[in-house]
Every structure is written in C-alpha cells, then in structure tokens.
Design brief:
The chain is of the alpha/beta class. It contains eleven helices and 14 strands. GO terms for molecular function: ATP binding; ATP hydrolysis activity.
Length: 325
C-alpha cells in the first residue's frame, strides 16, 4: 500500500449534498473529501446513493443542496477545463462495436485532446498500459470479458486525467484480468492520479484503497483506513469450530451454548449441528477460554479457525446488509 497522500490538498470536496427524486431522498446531506494522490474507496449496498453521488461530482446530475468542488473549483456542466482533468471508467462497458480497439481509444481521447499528433502518442501509451497493443485492430465483439474491461479502462484514461473514477471495474472478469486491472490502477496512482474506486469486492478495496468511505441511504456512515474501520465495530475475532457433539452429547448443546454466551467477551454464539461460530470482542486469550470451556463439557473438536474481522463484517454491522446483497 502506498501511503502517499500529500497533506490536505483536496481533489474532491463534497459538502452537505442533497439530491431528491420526488419524495425519495437519494443523497441526504452527504459529505466526502478525497485528498489528492490517494486511492479512495466508496462502498455501499445497491441503492445506497453511490452512483448518484458520482454523477453529482461529475456535474452530470443537478442537485438540490450542497456544494461539489473538484481541485478547489466548483464544478458545473460547462466546467470544460476541469472536466478535461477527469477520467471515468463506468460500470457498464461503453465502447463502439463498429470501431476497432485503437479507434475506440482514439475517439474517447479526441473528446479531450484535439491535437492528432499528441493523441497518437497517448493512444499508444494507453494500449501498452492495459496490455492491448496486440489487439489494437480487433473489434470489441472479438474480445473476452476481461479484455473488454481493459479497453473500457483505456478509453477512460488515455487523456492522462488527474482524477479517475472507477465504478465496479472488475465485475465478472477472470482472476488474471482482475489482478491486471488492480495493478494498473495502482500504477496510475503512483504516476500521480487520484482515484475514486467503487467495488462490491471487499478484498480489492482492502488491497488498494488508502481510505474507505461506507455510505448507505444517501448518508456518510463511516470513514477511515481498513484497520480504522475494523476497530469501529464490536466484533474483534470470529472463532469457527467443527464439531458434531457440542457439549459431549446431543442434549447438551444448548447448555454449552448458554455457557459460551455467558463469557464476558462473547458477543454471540451459534451452532448448526456441525459448526460452532463464536463472535468475540477484542481479547488476548479468547480462543483459549473458549476451548477450555468446550473441553470441560466433553466436546470433540475438529477443524478450528480464528480470524480478525473483515471489511465485510464492518459493512454488515454498520448497514445491516452484506455488500453482495
């Protein structure tokens, strides 16, 4: 992880943003501040307002209240100089099927860079960057899903933007393409681009984002590094133990569960007949205490694991939904 945020210079500052559709409030006094030079994760379940927030930041949508500043300037639909500094990689692949890979990149680059000579060099750079040089004469219909996603990225970054929005860029791609895309985003960031990244895949967000904002119902719920977010929730450790005889025999399982739930560090304990799951607060010897209790009750223990909370646990506790819902 490159921690290279440079002081407090702001790339995007959103303050008290309100967006209504009739009676529905899509953004409810939403705040966000992205620093220049960081990869910033924006997470929320479907319908949380992520896409609406991004469209307001890009001045593609009008809003009812609040302000949006990009690199210190208010952005409006006609802020063309500011918009030239922004790149967008949308969730749905947006390319022209009748143009080749190279022609697609050139077309999108031409929206920002009118000079043909300059563009020629930028298109070549973008092709090399996403590893599509060998496919430059192909039409999009001949590309695999992963290569199509890479083309989508090349079209959004060819004009060398300072700020890039990636909206779910790895949906439905193979692991190899996913790694190539994530490494590419980190390379763009190292070259100086500020990145705003939305994803359904928690492990990706944890891998590449400097800071993460969790939103739901159009509101800012929590902000921090992955470790800071994990420290905000009660769950500090999740212990899983395979056993077919909790408490030593069939009738004893409930009594053992009650004893486990009575331990001061235990938040909750569940047993499905084969696996026992114990959620604990942070503690140095939770596992030892749980095992001692089970041993005293005569439980035979099979496979055992203990893990720290994940971003998904944070998400679940803060929003009441798993991100993939």
């Amino acid at each position: 992880m490159d921690g290279h945020t440079n002081g407090t210079a702001s790339a995007v500052a959103v303050s008290k943003l309100v967006k209504r559709y009739g009676d529905m409030v899509a953004l409810d006094y939403f705040d966000l501040d992205v620093r220049q030079g960081e990869i910033f994760g924006l997470l929320g379940p479907n319908g949380s307002g992520k896409t609406t927030a991004i469209n307001c930041m890009l001045a593609l949508l009008t809003f009812d209240e609040g302000t949006v500043r990009v690199f210190g300037e208010r952005i409006t639909p006609t802020s063309y100089a500011l918009k030239r500094r922004i790149g967008i990689v949308p969730q749905n692949v947006a390319v022209f099927n009748e143009l080749t890979v190279e022609e697609n990149i050139d077309y999108f680059c031409s929206l920002y860079v009118p000079d043909k000579e300059k563009r020629h060099a930028l298109v070549k750079e973008a092709l090399d960057f996403v590893g599509l040089a060998d496919y430059r004469k192909y039409r999009p219909a001949k590309l695999s899903g992963g290569l199509l996603r890479r083309l989508n990225i090349a079209c959004g970054i060819a004009h060398r933007p300072d700020l890039i929005f990636f909206d779910e860029p790895t949906v439905a791609v193979d692991p190899q393409s996913r790694n190539a895309i994530l490494e590419g985003i980190q390379r763009l960031n190292r070259k100086g681009a500020t990145v705003i990244y939305t994803s359904h895949y928690m492990e990706e967000v944890e891998q590449i984002c400097d800071r993460i904002l969790i939103m739901d119902h159009g509101r800012h719920l929590a902000l921090g590094t992955a470790d800071e977010l994990k420290a905000m929730i009660d769950t500090g450790e999740r212990i899983s133990i395979e056993t077919d005889d909790l408490g030593g025999h069939a009738d004893a399982a409930d009594a053992t569960l009650e004893r486990l739930r009575a331990l001061p560090f235990v938040i909750g304990a569940d047993y499905d007949g084969h696996e026992l799951t114990v959620n604990c607060r942070r503690g140095d010897h939770n596992l030892i205490d749980v095992l001692q209790l089970l041993e005293r009750d005569g439980t035979n223990i099979g496979h055992l694991s203990s893990r720290q909370p994940t971003l998904n646990d944070v998400f679940l506790e803060l929003t009441g939904t798993a991100l993939r819902d």
